[in-house]
Amino acid sequence: MQGFVLCAKKYSIPASLLELEITESVYTESTQQLIAVIRQLKAAGFKIAMDDFGKGYSSLNMLNEVAVDVLKLDMKFMEKADLADDTSNSNMFSFVVNLATWFDLPIIAEGIETETQVSFLRSLGCNMGQGYLLSKPQKDADFIYTLNNCKDVFCEEKIKERPNNIINRRVLPA
Predict the structure, then answer these.
(1) Which end of the chain has fewer CB atoms < 10 Å from its terminal CB, N or C?
(2) DSSP readout, 102-144?
(3) 92 three-class SS
């Protein structure tokens, strides 16, 4: 934990602008230690994202005990999002989006590769995501260029609403 604080100070980055990801599987391995570390990180100002949510260990109890700021929906959900007749996947996705809404948590869908998936997500009220359709991994120079020229990448109003948006979290196109 101290390493994150020192790194943020070293580079003069406010902790509130940094979002640290933990995988939900960590919850099952050492619940009390995880809860304690997350409390310390949040007290230091960091945002916490639950990565790979829905991969297999999700529980309502976990969401209640672990004070995360963002849910990142596992990319396995997206694999079936192109199948129009897959109502069980659609219902599950809808449930998770509604669950995040009830907990007042932003939700990010991972693994977006098609426009059909974007339409599906927007229809459910999920309007943040990441995946190859939005941006492939970038080299340092390309990343800096994208960051400096991001007006065509992000919705500017969303940046003003949530200044902690990061480059791999994209507002899905309308």
Answers:
(1) C
(2) HTT--EEEE---SHHHHHHHHHHT--EEESTTT-----HHHHH
(3) helix
Q: Which structure tokens are listed for 39?
A: 């409390």
Are 138 and 103 contacting, i.e. CB atoms less than 8 angstroms apart? Answer: no
> In the block, which residue shows the tokens 């609403």?
161
Determine the Cα angle at 154 with ends 160 and 130, to 5°. 120
Tokens 């390309």 sit on residue: 142
pLDDT tens profile 3-58: 888 988 888 889 998 999 988 777 777 788 888 999 999 999 999 998 888 776 66
Say how far apart CA 97 and CA 86 lie, in whole Å. Answer: 17
Lowest mean pLDDT among 41-55, 74-88, 116-130: 74-88
What is the distance between the alpha carbons of residues 125 and 98, in angstroms, rounded to a whole number? 9
Contacts of 40 (CB under 8 A, 6+ apart): 1
- Whole-number Å distance between alpha carbons of 157 and 55: 32
Residue that is written with structure tokens 């079936």 in the block: 80
Tallying the residues shown for the chain, one arrives at: 174
